Amino acid sequence: MTLQEIMSELKAMGNADTKRIFMNHGAQEPLFGVKVGDLKKILKKTKTNHNLAIQLYETGNSDAMYLAALMADHTKVTREKLQSWIAKANWYMLSEYAVAGLAAESPYGLELSRHWRQSDQELVAAAGWATYSGVISITENSKLDLKEIDSLLDHIKENIHHSPDRVRYTMNGFLITVGGYIPSLTAKAKDISTQIGKVTVNLGNTACKVPYAPEYIAKMVDRGSYNKKRQAVRC
């Protein structure tokens, strides 16, 4: 498929209700309002196509940008391209899921997560936490820097309630990820999340809620996903 063909198909798949929901969550124009499930229908046709993904992201259309991150080749994406993409990600679905997922699967996941977490831009800092969570979810624990992760739990304990909304949300997600994927740190993650209590985040005009970390970790144990690494981050 060509760029023009995909953009035409995205326009046809767009839905006014989906667009409204996305914009309630912070999405910005231009976008058609295409569900992720429908994006994957296009992805089945194109498969991984790195050059086409770069063209799609450069359109600035939110639906095309999300599809681009799904379509990109994590073995070919450069550090510079990921930096460029995070700078253009203008709402959390792009920053924390699309770009962060691609970054986590790339060779630059840890490096960029450390760099992005230091940003004074809320979406970029949140992407840093989301990227590290993604790395943890697909990497054998023996290959992770457990001392660094342990220290980040302490950092979250001291800073989560003083951080911007999306950073709080992704810090909370990091607690869940550590508790659910690293058995040696599960007890500490649960203890800290219990001390922190329920995390409040302004989620705008939506019905979404912030997961309560201790309960979510327990659910991972109950449903059998505890310490079961994922094959990929992007979805």
Explain this structure.
The structure is a single chain. The protein is mainly alpha-helical and 235 residues long. Helices cover 66% and strands 0% of the residues. It is built from 13 helices and no strands. It has helices at residues 3-13, 16-24, 36-46, 50-58, 62-71, 79-88, 92-105, 109-117, 122-138, 146-159, 165-181, 183-196, 213-222. The protein is globular, with a radius of gyration of 18 Å.
In summary, what is this structure?
The protein is mainly alpha-helical and 235 residues long.
Structural class: mainly alpha
Count, helices: 13
Helix content: 55-70%
How large is the share of residues in beta strands? under 5%
Give the strand tally. Answer: 0
Average pLDDT score: 97
Unreliable stretches covering 5 or more consecutive residues: none
Shape type: globular
Report on the biggest sheet.
none
Q: What is the domain total for the residues?
A: 2
Query: How many angstroms separate the termini?
Result: 21 Å
Q: Gyration radius, to the nearest Å? A: 18 Å
What is the N-to-C order of secondary-structure elements (H for helix, E for strand)? HHHHHHHHHHHHH
